[in-house]
Task: inverse folding
């Protein structure tokens, strides 16, 4: 029976490119997860991640500034 | 607000001749790495330059790395005076590429691209094999991870391509 892309990523055939990517350090579970979404959803999730990371970076910046002014 | 999906949809809605390349294209195929800029390869016809300018103008584009105090006027003639542009906009960074290394111009990219649906907006993105050609040709250290992702996705989706 033909395996789905997700199945191939989650259980790579030995000696193949997927196994090589895993050995390189790629998290194949993330790729398999992404394949559950439509292309639009995948790009939107990237946008959400960037917005979250920017909020996080801003929070760190504010905390460091406060630390400097308090210190 | 960072919103590259909206930026792509705006180009598609305006019937701009373009192909999404780079990190957003990899994300579209299922890649997992976060990217902060939209790279598109575009047709350099006058008509297309005008369409691109009409999309970008409301997004307050400015060349990245240029001092904010320097005057910058953006219109379609701006796009006549170069091939590759790196803009920061209100939706995020947008890079316009007249050519992609290893493949060529917009016309050369078309056979290497596929049309996808982005919530009702038909958009062309570079195929996985096309992205591999471009990344291999670029030969940059930073692309090594992206290439491994593409090799894995190519093998995983081979029966569907």
Result:
């Amino acid at each position: 029976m033909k395996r789905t892309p997700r199945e191939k990523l989650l259980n790579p055939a030995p000696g193949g490119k997927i196994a090589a990517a895993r050995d390189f350090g790629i998290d194949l579970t993330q790729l398999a997860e992404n394949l559950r979404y439509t292309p639009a959803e995948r790009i939107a999730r990237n946008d959400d991640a960037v917005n979250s990371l920017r909020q996080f970076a801003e929070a760190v910046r504010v905390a460091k500034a406060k630390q400097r002014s308090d210190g | 607000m960072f919103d590259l999906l909206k930026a792509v949809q705006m180009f598609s809605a305006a019937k701009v001749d373009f192909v999404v390349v780079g990190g957003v294209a990899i994300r579209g195929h299922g890649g997992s790495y976060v990217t902060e800029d939209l790279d598109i390869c575009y047709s350099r016809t006058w008509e297309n330059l005008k369409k691109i300018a009409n999309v970008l103008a409301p997004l307050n584009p400015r060349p990245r790395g240029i001092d904010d105090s320097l005057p910058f006027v953006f219109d379609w003639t701006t796009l006549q005076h170069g091939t590759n542009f790196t803009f920061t906009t209100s939706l995020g960074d947008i890079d316009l590429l007249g050519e992609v290394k290893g493949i060529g111009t917009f016309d050369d990219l078309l056979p290497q691209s596929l049309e996808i649906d982005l919530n009702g907006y038909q958009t062309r993105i570079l195929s996985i094999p096309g992205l591999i050609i471009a990344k291999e040709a670029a030969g940059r250290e930073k692309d090594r991870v992206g290439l491994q992702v593409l090799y894995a996705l190519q093998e995983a989706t081979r029966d569907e391509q």
In short: The first helix of chain A runs from residue 5 to 10. The mean pLDDT of chain A is 95.
